[in-house]
Amino acid sequence: MLVQVSLADLVAGTQVALGPGDTLEVTCSFDYTVSQATTETLWGALGIGLGRDIEAFKEIDLDRSITPETWSGYIDIPIPMSGKNNGAYWLQVEVKGYDLGRDAGEKIENAIMMSGMPEIGDIFTVLELIPALIMVMMMSMMMNLIGGVTK
What we know:
The chain is an alpha/beta fold. The chain is 23% helix and 48% strand. It has one domain (2-117): Immunoglobulins (Immunoglobulin-like, Sandwich), CATH 2.60.40. Strands 2-8-7-4-5 form a 5-stranded mixed beta sheet. The model has no long low-confidence stretch (mean pLDDT 86).
């Protein structure tokens, strides 16, 4: 499911609920002046504590402008189906060297509430363990054969 939110709303305290397979689309804008057309990297990340758990990058084009222009757009941050923790995540979106608004370039604590991620026990089923069990049984049989040959 695509969940759309503006960076300004998140800075203002909006909390977004996400789950496995969702995509967070964060809209943002900033003012710029550049002497020649350039390409910059828009970066978005979600994390818990000091770690960046989910990151996304997007190349954006800035047209030449010697008077202040506004770039507006979005970055999609896809949420994986598993492997992440449930709980409150911070969000950060930035373009190095540009101001995305008051507090927008900083980590926005507790902006994302992740739920529905499978627990470790839910990820592995008996069917997924069958290939590993077959390999262990084959190694055991080979060790028995090698042991019988050397006696």
